[in-house]
Amino acid sequence: MTRRGLRDHPLVNLTLARMREFLREPEAVFWVYVFPLILVVALGVAFRNRPVEAVRVVVREGAAAESVAAALNRSPRFQAAVCDESEGRRRLRAGRADVMVAALSGATPRYEYAFDPTRAESVLARNAVDDFLQREAGRRDAVEAADLPLDEPGARYIDFLVPGLLGMGLMGWGLWGVGFAIVYMRIRNLLKRYLATPMKRIHFLGAIILSRLLFTATEVLLVLVFARLFFGVASLGSYLAVALLILLGALEFAGIGLLVASRAQTIETVSGLMNLVMLPMWIASGIFFSTERFPETVQPVLAVLPLNPLIHALRSVMLEGTSLWSLGSDVALVAAWGGVCFLLGLRWFRWN
User: Fold this and answer.
1) Phi and psi of 287, rounded to 5°?
2) Parallel, antiparallel, or unpaired: how do β-strands 55-60 and 99-104 relate?
3) What Cα–Cα distance (Å) separates residue 163 from each residue in 63, 286, 313?
């Protein structure tokens, strides 16, 4: 095909039309390019590496309360205050204290701890306070221990977060950029007008997906460059593998977006369907925290959510340097979701 023939090709012109339409919407440009960077900055700063906060301790009133509080306050690890039992329990319930300790006298002195066993920080606070007080009482460790603090790229929260944000962006791109755009054109009767032209249907749908792919490439590149420059986030694996996973993920959610929009007739319908699809993945696909926090019984279900294998594969490549060939099951699952949804979307697609 000649250069002029390529310029006049319907797919090229439809793609350019969709890109111009997108660039004329400042709100869309903000959500695609600016909002992901705001998330990177906000979460990167909020969860930056910093010294561990002091453990907030309530010492229950008693004969030895003042001495226990004074001993704890000598260490920068603790902030101790003496108060009665009812006030101490109020502070625990309100989250203004992590643990309450009482020094009980008797034939054998002992400490009593009140804490929430379902809160990890409360359990850690109880163990830290007990360890400190036992050492103050003269306990010695049988084996010497040494600490090796870990503070390097790849082991921080921001390194964990960036692959999750990339996956979240691809999900939003597919559902809002493809699905919502199609329904919006259907509502305005643009699909019927396009259908009356000599345009091939595959060219129209292909132009929507291709235009979004081009914007997604720049969005992903912007996030990766920004995270690298400001937070030192780098990939231990091949950037080519990252690029291929991003392309595959973009096609996966383009297929899902097409399926969601295939028959929706109103903005309310498509918005409800997209929220129905996206909400479980927002919560349970490991964007902001590991899916291992969920019970073992639901892990098989979470593992097959469309976003989960994509984020797992991105993190494996970027944080562990895993090769793409070692992620066959994740890649196959992402491809299967995209292929099946795309075929079903084409089959059920309604133009009017």
Assistant:
1) -65, -50
2) parallel
3) 54, 10, 9
Contacts of 212 (CB under 8 A, 6+ apart): 18, 173, 174, 177, 178, 250, 254
Give the model confidence (pLDDT) of 279-290 as tens digits.
888 888 888 888
Domains of the chain: 9-47+153-348 (no CATH), 55-136 (3.40.1710.10)
Task: For residue 352, give the nearest of 259, 265, 266 by alpha carbon.
Answer: 265
Q: pLDDT tens-digit profile of 6-63?
A: 666 767 777 777 677 666 666 656 666 677 778 777 767 666 665 667 889 999 998 8
- The C-alpha atoms of residue 36 and residue 28 are separated, in whole angstroms, by 12
CA atoms within 13 A on the CB side of 55: 28
**Cα–Cα distance list, 231 to 118, 149, 219, 282 (Å):** 33, 19, 17, 24
Q: Closest by alpha carbon to 174, among 201, 213, 207, 202?
A: 213
8 Å CB contact between 277 and 288:
no
Report d(CA 292, CA 318) in Å as an integer. Answer: 19
Q: Which residue has the tokens 């294998």?
A: 309
**340 Cβ neighbours under 8 A, 6+ residues apart:** 255
pLDDT (tens digit per residue) in 163-172: 998 998 888 8
The separation between the first and the last C-alpha atoms of the chain, rounded to the nearest angstrom, is 33
Q: Residue 24 class from Cβ within 10 Å (0-12 exposed, 13-18 middle, 19+ buried)? A: exposed
**Distance between CA atoms of residues 228 and 242, nearest Å:** 15
One-letter amino acid at 6 equals L
Among 225, 258, 271, which Cα is nearest to 341's?
258
Can you give the pTM of this predicted structure? 0.71
The overall average pLDDT reported for the chain is: 83
Residue 33 is given by DSSP the state I
Q: How far is CA 248 from CA 36, 109, 183, 254, in A?
A: 20, 64, 24, 10
Cα dist. 208→142, 174, 214, 253 in Å?
Answer: 67, 10, 10, 13
